[in-house]
Design goal:
Elements lengths: L1 H10 L4 H15 L4 H25 L2 H5 L5 H23 L6 H11 L6 H9 L4 H31 L5 H30 L1 H25 L2 H4 L2 H28 L4 H11 L4 H11 L2 H30 L18
Helix pairs in contact: 2-10, 3-9, 3-10, 5-6, 5-8, 5-12, 5-13, 6-8, 6-15, 7-8, 7-13, 7-15, 8-9, 8-13, 10-14, 10-15, 12-13, 12-15, 14-15
């Protein structure tokens, strides 16, 4: 039965992990954690977030960061799409009045996040793009995101989500940056073990995010989440996320071509410049916003994440079908960093 369900999800191009994430939403809706248990879970979540970013630091190869760094024009283009155009589009979409203020704030938060690492590189590889550049660009996006995301959130969301001042940035430094640096420093001793036990580390990685989602949605449900978000609003959110992804995909594709990038570089720009990281976004939401608010704010991210995986899977296959003798094909691949 489980194999049949797995095959069905595969045919529908639905990530099984996304199903688990939404399962946490259902569980929190039925059995939300309350009172002293909620306080205890909050402490566990903070420790899980610290562990998550320690592992990210320990997994990230310094060679991957250095690799392709001389291709500064490509990297600046990707960063411009990620941290300039995307937040602008998110802010414009939020101000249309289609979504409720909280969901609109979640959309802006989504737009301020860094790119994904693993899936951006994987799709670039499938599409026969510049994988070395994708490794460097996606890694740089996440490193800079530790600083840039809370700054953008403070600038763009204080009126919508109650986020003001620089206290959230201090929390990011303590709960994300310091564990990340500790992971980098510990890499000579733990890096080989992590490479050898990638599957176990992956379980810890994803399990931490599931825990954060359950905690955030529990607080949101206790605060009356489902009285504030209606099925119609969820459908509207689905449409807005789909439209936002379509616009950014078109912008990255035709922007790369207008700037004269080779096809392999265009592919890296499309997949690194159009995606948003749930691995970074969910823990950041738990730090930047109160629990009840964070539960609602990550809804746009969860929906956008699934849409981007489905859309980019199709686009990657389309790129891969171009002629094998393409002059820009055959670039050396680099190993996945996360």
């Amino acid at each position: 039965m489980l194999n049949g369900l797995s095959n069905l999800l595969s045919r529908l191009k639905i990530d099984g992990y996304i199903v688990l994430l939404f399962g946490m939403v259902v569980l929190a809706s039925v059995l939300p954690v309350r009172g002293e248990l909620a306080a205890g879970l909050s402490l566990v979540v903070k420790l899980a977030i610290a562990l998550l970013f320690f592992l990210h630091g320990a997994k990230l190869s310094r060679e991957a960061v250095v690799a392709g760094v001389t291709h500064w024009r490509l990297h600046l283009t990707i960063l411009a799409f990620t941290y300039l155009l995307f937040p602008l589009l998110g802010l414009l979409a939020a101000r249309t009045g289609i979504l409720s203020p909280t969901l609109a704030a979640g959309l802006v938060f989504l737009a301020c996040l860094p790119s994904t690492v693993q899936s951006s590189i994987a799709f670039t590889s499938i599409a026969r793009g510049n994988v070395a550049a994708a490794v460097c660009a996606a890694s740089a996006s996440n490193l800079l995101g530790i600083f840039l995301t809370p700054v953008l959130v403070s600038l763009l969301m204080h009126a919508q989500a109650g986020t003001a001042g620089w206290k959230p940035i201090q929390d990011i430094v303590v709960q994300l940056l310091l564990p990340f640096i500790a992971g980098q420093l510990a890499r000579p001793w733990v890096g080989a073990w992590i490479e050898k036990h990638k599957q176990l580390v992956g379980y810890v990685d994803r399990g931490s995010i599931l825990l954060v989602v359950y905690s955030a949605f529990s607080a949101a449900v206790v605060a009356g989440l489902w009285k504030r978000v209606t099925p119609l609003e969820l459908l509207l959110l689905l449409g807005v996320c789909g439209l936002l992804l379509a616009v950014i995909l078109l912008a990255t594709t035709f922007g790369a071509r207008a700037l004269g990038f080779a096809k392999a570089d265009e592919i890296a720009i499309v997949f690194c410049g159009s995606k948003k990281s749930m691995a970074t976004g969910v823990p950041m939401a738990g730090i930047l916003f109160p629990g009840a608010t964070a539960g609602v704010l990550v809804l746009p991210l969860m929906i956008f994440h699934q849409i981007q995986l489905m859309a980019c899977s199709v686009i990657a296959q389309h790129y891969a079908q171009r002629p094998a003798d393409d002059a820009t094909d055959g670039l050396q691949e680099a190993p996945l960093s996360r």
